[in-house]
Amino acid sequence: MNELHHLGVAELAAAIADKKTSSVEAAQHLLARAKEHQNLGAYLAFNEDLTLAQAQAADARIAAGERGPLLGVPLAHKDIFVTQGFPTTAGSKMLAGYQSPFDATVVSQLAAAGAVTLGKLNCDEFAMGSGNDNSAYAPVHNPWDTARVPGGSSGGSAAAVAARLVPAATGTDTGGSIRQPASFTGITGIKPTYGRCSRYGMVAFASSLDQAGPMARSAADCATLLSAMAGPDIDRDSTSLDHPAEDYTRLLGLAREGAMAAMPLKGLRIGLPTEFFGAGCAPDVLAAVRAALSEYEKLGATLVDISLPRTELSIPVYYIIAPAEASSNLSRFDGVKFGHRAAKFDDLADMYKKSRSEGFGPEVQRRIMIGTYVLSHGYYDAYYLKAQQIRRLIAQDFQQAFTQCDVIAGPVAPTVAWKIGEKSDDPVANYLADIYTLSTSLAGLPGMSVPAGFGAANMPVGLQLVGNYFKEGELLQTAHAFQQATDWHTRAPQGF
Amino acid sequence: MSLTLSDIGRIANLARLELSGTQSERMLGQLNGFFDIVEQMNAVDTTGVEPLAHPTAVIDHVSLRLRPDVASEPNNREANQKSAPAVERGLFLVPKVIE
Amino acid sequence: MSSSKSLLVHGYEVVIGFETHAQLATQSKIFSRAPTAFGAEPNTQACAVDLALPGTLPVMNRGAVEHAIRLGLALGSHIAEQSVFARKNYFYPDLPKGYQISQFEIPVVQGGEVSFFLGDEKKTVRLVRAHLEEDAGKSLHEEFHGMSGIDLNRAGTPLLEIVTEPDMRSSAEAVAYAKELHKTVTWIGICDGNMQEGSFRCDANVSVRKPGAELGTRREIKNLNSFKFMQQAIDYEVRWQIEQIEDGHAIQQATVLFDPDTGETRAMRTKEDAADYRYFPDPDLPPLVIARDWVEQVKANMPELPRQMAERLVRDYGLPEYDATTVTQSPAMAAYFETTAKASGQAKMASNWIMGEVSRRLNNEEKDIAQVPVSADTLAALLKRIADGTVSNNAAKQVMDALWSGEGQDVDAVIEAKGLKQMNDSGALEKIIDEVMAANAPMVEQFRAGKDKAFNALVGLVMKASKGKANPQQANDLLKQKLQ
Hints:
heterotrimer; B: alpha+beta; Histone, subunit A; flat; C: alpha+beta; Arc Repressor Mutant, subunit A; 3 domains; three-stranded antiparallel sheet; 15 helices
């Protein structure tokens, strides 16, 4: 099979299980393809021997009669997840060549399910960015138009999945880093409830916001990965929620209670925040989103107008809280125990400053500066504390909204993917473009991006779906119903 | 409010970052640009609002999980120091620490 | 509140507050599963979490929290239903994360007090708080071609930082406070109290002022790792501050180190911007919630505290306050006393022997009561023999020597073997007395002539003739009769 890169997770798992191909063959094919398309900048590291060893082990398990939805399926991990055998850089010069002595919990859980690791995927440095142009190694190109960004910070994951270099990948979402690149590259991605997936082994950006999630072509494949990734990590992560792991595929294809197969979403109330549909959103994006919503009406859903009044505030609130936590999380990179150390320095203080200034890129330094400032003496109350208070109001706004609807829908981003370099000199412009994803992250709610058509320059547009806490199953069911009725998620970019 | 170059210097020193003159100038402009959009927070009345440190605390009470007091981590020094810039006799080497 | 009328030094009142870092006697670190044992090879007990390797996260040790509850119960503090861990941000090579996880606004132990005797005056020092935090690693300053070596084995060891009000008014009171706190934490088993190894580290905040004046500017003396140095350091610091003020210099707030060699304190090189720690609640750790029933459970398992026990010994055994305080220096000594007292029925004699004969021997051999070679029951058996007149007090000391050296184990066997039994058979004694009187007629005459001194001399001769076995009282009485 030489076209197996077109297969999604489910089809590939089935083909391997039915011996139509093997895990080793799939891994070799996808490795070759990944290298063939290195100009996309999606991959940062491979370890062919390790990958093939894992594939052989998976084939052995299959030969022994074992079955599993991920058994033998090649995946790739965002370089934010620490891995044994592959270097982990977090897209930063600071961690060039860093070898972790342990695997992230999410990585080991996927490995236990029989998934094979193809390599590590490019991302914005320490997951800080929305264009993947903040990687210290290479910008990632959007396979739909290689002159454009794939979104960020999980841009490598998004580009690799969209370009059929891998059927699915892990990503992390702190303020939209799964949803926005998924939207920009026409794939499906879900950020679960904060604390659903263990953060152990994720290089920390903002501890109270970081959350791992799957990125794939379909909601069904996302559900399969999430089922293996989620679950409490009692021994390693104090913020991982004490909720038992679920089978997130259980509701897929089922009609909602009391609904008929013809109208599977009958009774579903989809809330549309007026703040998400204003002048701030580009018309081409709004058009695609509205088309998708009328599709949902055909499936039986009803649309209700709601309000998330503090949507605009989510930008300053997020860009105070996330940098504050980041400035502290990144203090461990001091050139003492691991990471970059300057070649020349006068004394200890000088070693710290030179090592950190050489190791961190401009956006990371900017956020460390903002975070250090808002926590510093005399400013804490006015900025950090105030932001955490408004954060509660924002979270309460969502709880208010969920009394009127079951799911909230809207655009993921105000525009389609922009041209590489277009915003790189204007950090604030980048921050403003996160407006529709930040509030969900601040509230810790599950959110996803579902391919909803195309906008300007024929670039993909994603529909954002936000559910209440722990409603990942219902979200995926809602997204899956849409993907049963549409084929946006099956479209591949020209030449891939 | 608007930051000054001396603020930038103080913060950079706190954060152990070394910024050249031109870098400081750029940083100043960008930070002030950011703090312009922060202004709108002042208009929000947050009296009596408890800060939200852990998102899911909005719906239910979160409390710290405690683990039993058992020492189970084996010595893994070699692997742990694999990426260390300078090690001698198992110690991390740094420029002289003066107290 | 310190009840003491402050004793002035050159017209200045001394004001001292303490911050004590007690390492908690847990098996594992406060936020990781690495062992806490002292003295391992460098960085062999620093796991990925302790080294702050990318991706690691803290998970709280229940044992450390329980130790904090024990301290709170022992000192009558409020144990917070909910307390919060915060990050204290600063760069230092022995601080792997670039921040220390500590407690800032809401500590786990709030208020409480430490009471003790200074001479015979009862003192009480109020506590502000005790909070949980992680210890840092160590910088080794021995030469590594101009570099320092960092050992992170200690990083993440659980600490309770115990902070007092500035209630102490003299170095003697400060040392007495530190000793009482040390006794308490070791007594309830939350700290091994080893000051050399840094398990119990005291920082003293010292200032001076004219009586009734505002609090003076304080200087903090760091890491006082022995009670002796503590007193020396504070006395030096007080003299130094008074001299400065008398010379018209203002005291600058500073952190100082005590140099045992010179006996002086010197200001440490101040960490730049150490003032701005950028504290904020640690997003990796939800609030620490302590249920009341947990506190009740811990309370149920608390040992009787030294002060309570001393009061009980006075009440139940009629011991003097001094004896009671002395024998409750450690749980081991207290247990040794009480077993001896019970088994012998001779409480006062027991405290005398433990404070005297036993302690003296232990000191000579630099041993701890836990290593005493003579069991409480054996000592009790010996005390019984003194009480029932079988041996004299002096003879009993010889018995003790044999038991201590291991030459003998059974009290009566030793008395027998060494022939130390007192002669209580009056017939034999009368015979000796008659002989002595016959052999010393002149002395007898002198006595009868009214020279009382002669009587003592005769008694001495009788005892001598009996080779010390005569019961002195009995010898007295019989001799008196015969001399009538």
